[in-house]
Fold these 4 entries.
Entry 1:
Amino acid sequence: MHVFLGVAIVAPFLSAVATGVGLVLAKRWLSERVVSRVIRGGLGISVLASLGVIATYLGVFGVPVRGEVEFGSWLTVGEYSIPLTLMVDQVALVFSLLASVLTVLVARFSRTYLHKEPGFDRFFFLIGLFASGTQLIAFAGALDLFFAGWELIGISSALFIGFFHERDEPVRSSVRAFATYRLCDMGLLIAIVTIHELLGSTKLSALDAAGSLPAWESSAIAALLLLAAMGKSAQLPFSGWLPRAMEGPTPSSALFYGAVSIHAGLYLLLRVSSVIEVAPYVAAFGVFVGITTALYAAAVARIHTDAKGALAHATLAQIGLILAEISLGLTTFALIHLSGHAMLRVYQYLRAPNMIHDAHTYGHGHHQSGPGLLTRLAPRLSERVYASALHRWRLDDRIDAAIAPALAFARLLDRVDHRVRGALSVDGRT
Amino acid sequence: MTLGNPAIVAPALVWLCALVLLLMPELAALQKRQLVHGTLLAILLGLALALPVGAYAYATLAVISFVHAAAAARTSRTSVLSMGVAGLACVVAAGALWVEQLPVAFGASLVAIALRCGLFPLHGGVAALCDTLPRVQAQQLASLPVLVFAHLRFVDHSQLAFDAAIPVVLIGAASMLAFGFVSIAQRELGGLFRASTLMHGGMLFAAVGAAGRGHYAAALIVAITMALALTGFSIMLTALEARSGPLASLQGGGRARAFPRMAACLAFFGGAAVGLPGTSGFIADDLLLHALWGESVGSAVMMILASALLAVAILATFTRTFLGKPVRQLAPDLQAPERVAAVVLVIFLLVLGIVPKVLVDPISELMK
């Protein structure tokens, strides 16, 4: 079991590191074949290892191994340690297999799709990094490990959005997505430290004791975890980055925003569901956010004119519903919903570039229907929803307005720093 | 994981890191003439680590600070003053240790660290080094972990260190947050490097404060990680400046097409500086966060916010310089010595990130 678990996480990471070091040290660029084979080899080994973990879980090799698997500690300093604990349960197995199989499929698709594309090597390097991040969050038995995988996913996701870096828009979108991630990751980081301080360990098994904490403490931890999940899964009010993320190449959109990355926030909530359960107000807020996001995304998806943008919002609507399900405590149902949704969206995203071709070949298949229910019941409201959906409820503008004072404060501090350096300088200049 | 006697292994590891930090910038710049200067510094650093008597170690550290001051003499008087005063503080610390006045030694050592790491408002010297003499800044970054090591080993075990921990942590955290915000306002890589260095300086000072209550490993790993990541960053900036002209005058982006390896390395070192998982930055941030949380929740939150701000600033400034419509560049990408220097630093960051016990265990054992 230990070997399978280790290999599932480490194989893609090593393939990415080998490719990265090779690219920096080699005199000439590595060929597409070498890069894609190294990375796909790492991904393939990871899939096999995931299957090995499942086999061990089922007892194929003897006594079934389930629950926490200890690898010692990453480091121990005094009373503090980062436990190298992995968790093998049904939730982890489903997410691990789902992520590894979809990643290897998308990597195979990309080998042809991105042939001779500048950045081919970069794409595969990032896929390797991303795959190790997803396997790490899938099997993490402690929140410190989970955070490591979470960050790898966030960074590779932001770099994928800016993949076509010679255009301005993808680059701007990548910075915006990354800023949203980092803002919301603060919630996860603070939650991890708080959990460690209050429960004595960051192991997932320690979270079962969250019910013994005072209500406000468990609610605060649940709220911080929900904040992290909302950022990663693009829930309102952090939904603005998702349509912008469609600037990346189609395979990465499929993998990240259709299949794995967008569901990572929900997976976090599935892992910490014992904390959400004991925080009813936070759970209620989660339901509210999920339903609101679903309604918002459904309205926007209906009027979107580009395929990937419409798909992004359709994805978001389902993600909102899954968040509501988890907050209601329907975790098994949410896991099934999540898995089915991920597989469907990968297929749809990968087919998206063919939509125009399909439309010409098979016809549009549109049905002219009469006015919708909302239009018939409340035509004025329907018009307002339509108009608001057109500019996505000005979400980005509102976020920009909210962070404007912080940016102004940063500029002010920069000027103060400049003046202080000038005043204390003995060079006669700064 | 114990590799041997921690009294030998811990200083030896710190010296190894310091050597790498000293040599890699020279290797990348092919500065053979600096070999004598580098060798002298390496010997002094080894001496400061090996000497078992605090007074002698601080005297050696004073000489090292004066060497840095001398190296900056032609370019920045502010840096000379800053490094010189840091050297004098080390002299005071050495004298105080000689007459067994531990509180005085502690105070003087803190002043030296504050000046060397660029704590607000004592950051003029380090800021000037970042702007005008990145090579000397790299050298003083190489010796900074040694100063921190001496502080932890000889002066950080007093009641005063324990009592002063929270104020020191708060001062460091405030400086860290201030420069985190300043980093967001930067438009070019030079300014970002300065702000990032100063932000990490605040982080190191806070870590040194927390060490007063036993968090020794956090302080040392923060110092080493900061030095490794910022030295790598500095090597890449020097390489870029050599090819594209002064950083302050760089217009537009689009350099990734011409310098893909440089862009990749710069992104890696930037990531390591803000806690990229797999690098020692992640371990340093994690250890420090827990250390700060134990002493002052507010300072831990400030650290998280500062780190997030710096991460966004690094990506934003990186994109402004390297991404966008390609510009025509005749200069080549990283040359072999620069690539080797970068890869050595990358390997150090990865090894300390994946197997942090190599460094953390001997330090913890020694400090017991």
Entry 2:
Amino acid sequence: MSETALIDRRWIARDAERASTARFLLWLFPWVCLLLLGIYAAGLCFYYGLNQTNMDNRFAFGMWIFLDLSIIAMGAGAFFTGFLVYILKQTDLKPVLNTAVVVGLTCYSGAVAVLMVDVGQPLRAWFTFWYPNTHSMLTEVTFCISCYLLVLILEYIPVLVQNRQLRRVPSFLVFEHQAHKLVPVLAGVGAFLSFFHQGSLGGLYGVLRGRPFAYRQGFAIWPSTFFLFILSAIAVGPSFLMLVVAAAEKITGQTLVDFRVYRKLGFISGVLLAIYVAAKAIDTYVWLNVTSPRLGFGPWDYYSYWPFSSTFLFAATVPLGLLPAILFIVPRTARHRGLLLLAAALTCCGVLLNRFVMTVQTLALPTLPFDPFLKYIPSWQEVATFGGVLAYGVIVYSLSYRYLPMFEATKGEAKNVSLD
Amino acid sequence: MFPWTDGFHWTPTHIIFLSLFGAALLAILSTAVWGLWNTLNAFRKHLAAATCWRQNFGELPATERRCRHELAGRVPSRLCDHAFDCRTCPNYEKLAALPANAPASLAGVSYSDDLLYHRGHTWVRSDWDGTFAVGLDPFAQHLVGSPDAVQLPEICEEVESEGVAWTMVKNGHKIRVRAPLAGTVISTGGPDRDFYLKILPHGQPNLRHLLKGPEVAGWLAAEVVRLQMQMSNGKTTLADGGTLMPDLMDNEPGADWDAVLESTFIDR
């Protein structure tokens, strides 16, 4: 074993089986290249401005916002798993808790990083906190996401200090012990914040009176999209978590969690997805028959522009909504790992499609008689910046998996040790 | 959002909104501060070593958490759930009264019946002046041989039970040796003397957590098996009946010494 490999091995949990240093570096290489390309593209946007993108004053929300909304929804697995484990005491989900935290942290920090580029004036990013628009849903989103990112960082620290070498620093070990006592509080605060910002992300479309495709009626100050976004986020969070763990198992060739954990995550996802599909169906029915006609738009005014046909609506509701819900809930299909993962993938695709429709289709459709149908294709800088975020997520998860006890902590847990 | 922001009104909606976010932010910051404060307090009140030890103990595999009474052959199988602190074990008296049936072989290592042994491979000797001498036990000496460097605490320095008593360096490996009891260091020795530290405890110490008599033989037998397994890298094991080779770290440089030392000195 070379000296480098020996040093690397000393940072890996003692009983953990990990790839050789060379193999791990080979795995990281393309992702590091993608990250560097993303940083370069973001640098161009910082240096030259948002003219590097294909967005304009009419099409102000593009690929970045669509994918931001999507990864924030998928990162909901972090708060929801924490809520299930610490508040609802579903301790059998503990094996995926560390993964949920890392996935949540990468999703949220990645989304915030892209938003910093999207703001166009990163040096004035703090204005959103100091001079907030009190009438904007985005204010609530900004505050909640920033606070929740703090929560995720605090939740990640105890995972981080479980590293084999960091554990040798007594202050880290004591802090880890203290931090574990705080995690239920953070899980509660995280659930509260996530509930509101997931909702507000939907709410900000639902309140757009000038965009009949997105505008919805609702309850009190919240349009129906507020609740639909929460439901879809907590439905897709566990699904995405399943896919991440399954991908880690496939890549490492190891069984990391018991199949019962998959089934439980699937069942939770399925029940929530079924509720979401039912609520979405009612919402769509009311919107097409009541809300939209009142604003002077018939249902087909939205679906006659290629490629935004009614297929999108059908796809988001049936094959990417109802079907995975059935696959998750029916015991015969839920017994098959492959079908469970297929359902999880369909759920993620459904939420991606929903966020795409709410972001891109909403802005593309004309709202006034003289408005043209707008077309938008992201520039390479937009794609590369988001590719950088994807690479960042993979790198952080890979490093966390390699050097932190993501699953080992629960595998060899000494059940009867009193720590107080 | 804030009272100084244009558009803010002292209406219930704005106040509720501001209060909710203020409460959430306060909860996050106060939990972080609370965690840091408790960490600092643990060091100030000398609880840090015990906390670290319990955290480390929680990471030990079941094979390394065997109760002293199992090692002594008093009970067929029992795992410790008190972080090897028999002073807090409610079953200690009952189990200690059972007849022992420990293996006789000591793998060529001599252990004294007059000494008490800590699971981190140190021995403790009660001296006539009320102090306690602490040294490295023969098993650890066979492993480490002559250390390349030793860092001992200063005279008058406080050591905490299960905290770091002293550190050694051997072939690039840093070894932290756990203190078997708490107290003030009044004298330091080293590899060339018959002790490493002399400790004056605060009051009369309770040393029930230290091994003695037949427990030592059983514990040593288990440690030798563990060492054989680790040095054979999980492949073949050595035959019974051999004796422990001196200066193992020098004689077997290719072994996974990180793993061996972590297990031997319970420093995961």
Entry 3:
Amino acid sequence: MIDPIFLLEAAINGILLGGILALLALGLNLIFGVIDIVWIVYVDLVMLCMYVLYFTNQVYGWPFWLAALAALAVGAGLGVAVHVLVISPILASPPINQLLATGGLLFFIQSFATFLWTTDHRSVRFSLPSFEVGGIFLPATRLIPFGISILAMLALYLFLTRTFMGTAMRAVAQDREAMALMGADPRRVYVMTSAVGGLMAGLAGTLLVFQYSVHPFFGGQFGPLTFMICVLGGLGNMVGAFIASFIMSEIISITGVIWSTEMGYVIAFVVFIVMMFIRPGGILARSE
Amino acid sequence: MSRVAAVVLGAGLLAVPLFLGPGTGQYVLHVLIQMFIWSFVGQAWSLMGRFGLVSLGHGAFLGIGAYTVALLWNFFRLTPWVGAPVAVALTALFAAVVAYPCSRFRVVGHYFGLVTLAVGEVVRLLIIAERDWTGGSLGLTLKPAGASSLLALQFTDRRVFYYGTLALWAVGLWVWWRLDRSMARDAMEAIGEDETAAASVGIHVTRFKLGITVLSAALTALGGVAYAQYITYVNPETLSGIGVSLRIVFAVVLGGMYALLGPTVGAALTIALSESLRIAFGLKLIGMAETIYGLLLVLFIIFLPAGIWGSLRRPRAPARPLEPVRPVA
């Protein structure tokens, strides 16, 4: 029998992991919802931003805040580059081709990263304290990213609801054709969305280096999970994606303690598959 | 394709091993065998893909097929002649379990792709989790039967595998061609266009989708068996990862999934490309070959969306002329 304290610790770790997953999922879901294309390559952009952080901070000795700003800038730049170079020429193509183009980009980025930086795992070292609350250890390397992630999601929410561009993005997500008829230029909205999505990738990368080391195949670790969270939450549904992140992270974290890490992911994926059958519109959709 | 061209191509392929000696010849043979196996798998995938059932998890079927045969042989010394049918039956059952709710609950488009992606990941993770028998992420080597053995389907002579996989590929072409000429194709195309409309003219949507998925999965499993027997080593990443599932789709889309030889052209080109890049760069610039591969894939998809062979065969997208609707099955 497993000591309940371990389960509690797993549940808390699940919440902390959920915060990061939610940030990843929101960035991808924004692009998914507005442009209607699955960026299979999304978490690989996060990986590149993690490398930016590693090199600027650990190798060139920049202070962490400056390195983080660099990662955010690179993230936004990559988002725009992916959109302009790869996505915009194939906006009218069948969805399968759009999916595969970003998949090809995934091969490209993974291999180019291997070529440039080899498959070594690299980590940014922090000396941060751990807090002990009732026998449970809460490392600051998990608490700080969680807190920043929640703040960032609030900022995104305010951006989407209180600014003109944010409102335009939500409008395009609701009805692509009508938005063009209203005189807004969807192309500009797309570029902005990709930039914001990329910025979120940069931020997610910044927060992930607190806990994970970076290597060229980092994307495989979080990529599939991120798409599934987006779909589970409902395409383009931000609140749904937020809740779905915590559901998935709790399943992974708790099953990981009582069974094994792989089985944690297996159960999470099976839950995703079953939910697709019974709630294809996402967990918050009304059942038909 | 005209009958003459088919006969010439067939005779040419049958004669190839006669001109290949030891050394480089064996390498060429090895590349050709891989091309046949992956073309066969690509054909199996395109049976579904061409009707809009874009699976991103065919690695699941490949993995179940290959691992079933390998485990039965290693632990029970069960000959692949029995193991392969078991593997195919098991995969078909698994595919039916996935496909039935998918068509029953109308999981289509992006959603179908992501569900199959999850299925592929589940199989890969289960193989890794059951490391006590499967060897986990280290993979599993088929126990050698000693000398060449027909019973164990292990041969030291590559030519046997050449003819074996050539036959497999030909079977794949035949299945594709039969389906292309059958009523099922019309039914599936109608379903791919609009499920509700298809159902309203009397097409049994679930039955057709289930059938095509099971057929595709069973053939893919057979491809996995062929791969396991030839390479004699199975690994969850090379058989069931997202990488391999995407590679299958890439090859088919690159060749063109609406033409008979599309998957073959695509698989042959991607293998030739990665092999020649590997030779060109060798161990000097690790990752460079794959980098160029990825870049070319993106460029091909942007500039040749109908696939290479597909573009040569049909100048425009495969819009079929409107025919009067006839009730099917």
Entry 4:
Amino acid sequence: MTNDDRFQDLYRKYYKRMVRFYVLSFRVTEEDAEELTQDAFFRFLEAMDEYRGDAEWAYLETIARNVAYNRIRSQKTAKRGAETVDVHDRNAIPEPAAPPEPDYAQREEEALRSKRLRDAIAGLPTGSRECIQLWLNEFTYDEIAKFLKITVDAVKSRLRDAKKILRAKLGDANAFPEVEE
Amino acid sequence: MTTKSELSAANRDLITENRLAIGEPPTAEEVLAYTRGELAPDEEARIRERLIAYPDLVRTLTTPFPEGADPDHPDYLSDHEFARHWKALQKRRHHSDGSLQVWRAFGAIAAAVAVVLGGLLWRAEMQLKQPVAVWEQQDLYPDAQRGIGERPNTLTPHGDSYLLVPTLLPDLADKLRAEIVDAINPSRTVWSSKTLSRTADGSLVIVVPREFLKQGTYRLVVYGITGERQEPLNSYTLRVPAR
């Protein structure tokens, strides 16, 4: 089987599923997903001659993730350099009127409560904090385990510890019923 | 009772705060090294911390990657679909080759220019490191002190440099500064020295590369500096003859 044959086989097998992978996982449009998929295959094709392993699909996976990573990373960094609008610019699109706000005392109380929660998370032991931060961002136990390179049982254990510490710190014995006991 | 959504909101604020301290997300190369376990423990912890501040990026690493479709599955590209996508990929490939060739040509020209400039620079540096032969010392006498019908100090048209020695009365100032101006248009300064401490014997020696002064008439002005005050001590009219 020549390099071209191997590439075409992978292309046929993975093209549609990679497009779906990008659409569902990274919330991009179908068009963008096709662009990312072509980009990934293009990079794979360019690097294929230098690849010496058998598991080409694994190599393709690395490249596909890399392409997604670079795209999202560039969006994150581009946002920092985004143009600003002069507040006195008459052509600037006016902001819609703000909804009625809670009164000052209520806002103050909410800000204090938010700070207490932030401090409580930040003060957790590193392992537990990493687990709970990822869990709060809707990562599954499997995904957390994969990212932190630990077992699912270790993830559950660290989350339980985090929950215990947070409950004690916040003086709230019934907090976060969502965490598995 | 504190809920998960409340804690999630606080976590989002915490992440926003952390990003300011942590800075840019890790590069793709750093992340690849992280996933392959190629980093030292402290470096790995640092990359992990920076990634947690960008959950979308963590998702690119953790989302399960699909398996390839079997040939009889609808996800497997048909011949028609394959031909269409394949054509687009080939187009991109050729476009990239074209761009690459332009860049390669540009790179080759830039490299050639760099080699030539490098060579010239090397030669100039080597020349600076070599001893310079000065044919003879030019003792300069101040204007209005060279007698009736005085002529400018004519510079000897030999050698690579002129060695100018303006005659000065000793102990006129603590420090000196010299300037060469165009004699026809004195507002055009050709060269100006930094402030020079006066030597023990009060002499001043100026080496001027021969190439520096074109044919014409110039005036060398020597200033004396005492404290905050600067005043011209002498001026010397110089004539640079044709070569």
